[in-house]
C-alpha cells in the first residue's frame, strides 16, 4: 500500500501584516480548496471510493459545504456522516463516491484522505485501503504530526511518497 504525503508550502499560511515577520495561522480556506482539488483528482483517476477522515467535525462540515460549490462545472458527489454514526459505519454501507467522517470505516479498501492529526490505525493483517493521502500544512504543529505519521507508516513497512506543493 502506498502512503502519499502532500506537504503544502508557505502560500497556505496567513501572514500577519501587523507583526513584522511572524506567520500566524494556516489559511484554512486555501487548505480546503486544495482538499477539494485533490478529491476531484482522486475521483477522476481512481475507480475506488474516497473517504476523508478528520477529527475536527467543524472542518468536516466546512468541507461538506465547500465540496457542493467548489467547481461550477463539475459536481463532487459526497456525503457527511456525523459522529454519532461513525462507530456503526462499515465499508459496505458507504453509498457515495466520497464520504466525510471522523474515523476509518471497517474493511474499507478504497482511497483515504487523512486530515486527522494522527496516523491511521492500519495493520497489514487486516483489510487495507488502496492508498492513503496525508496533507501536511506549513505550520510547526502539522509538520511534527507529519513526521510522527511518517515514522508510524514507515515502521509498518508501507511505501511512502512525498509531494511538495508550492
Automatic annotation (TrEMBL):
Gene Ontology annotations of biological process type: DNA replication; positive regulation of DNA-templated DNA replication initiation
Enzyme class: transferase
EC nos: 2.7.7.7
Keywords: Nucleotidyltransferase, Transferase
Record flagged with keyword Nucleotidyltransferase: yes
Keyword Transferase assigned: yes
UniProt-recorded Gene Ontology molecular function terms: DNA binding; DNA-directed DNA polymerase activity
Top-level lineage group: Bacteria
InterPro entries: DNA_pol3_chi, PolIII_chi_sf
PANTHER family in the cross-refs: DNA POLYMERASE III SUBUNIT CHI
Annotated protein name in UniProt: DNA polymerase III subunit chi
Native organism: Psychrobacter pasteurii
Underlying gene: holC
Amino acid at each position: 500500500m502506498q502512503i502519499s504525503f502532500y506537504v503544502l508550502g508557505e502560500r497556505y499560511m496567513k501572514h500577519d501584516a501587523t507583526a513584522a515577520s511572524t506567520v500566524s495561522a494556516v489559511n484554512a480556506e486555501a487548505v480546503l480548496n486544495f482538499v477539494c482539488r485533490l478529491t476531484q483528482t482522486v475521483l477522476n483517476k481512481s475507480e475506488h471510493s474516497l473517504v476523508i477522515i478528520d477529527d475536527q467535525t467543524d472542518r468536516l462540515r466546512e468541507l461538506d459545504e465547500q465540496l457542493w460549490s467548489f467547481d461550477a462545472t463539475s459536481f463532487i458527489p459526497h456525503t457527511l456522516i456525523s459522529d454519532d454514526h461513525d462507530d456503526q459505519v462499515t465499508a459496505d454501507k458507504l453509498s457515495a463516491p466520497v464520504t466525510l467522517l471522523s474515523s476509518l470505516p471497517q474493511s474499507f479498501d478504497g482511497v483515504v484522505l487523512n486530515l486527522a492529526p494522527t496516523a491511521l490505525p492500519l495493520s497489514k493483517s487486516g483489510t487495507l485501503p488502496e492508498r492513503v493521502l496525508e496533507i501536511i500544512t506549513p505550520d510547526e504543529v502539522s509538520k511534527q504530526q507529519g513526521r510522527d505519521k511518517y515514522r508510524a507508516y514507515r515502521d509498518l513497512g508501507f511505501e511512502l511518497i512525498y509531494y511538495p506543493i508550492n
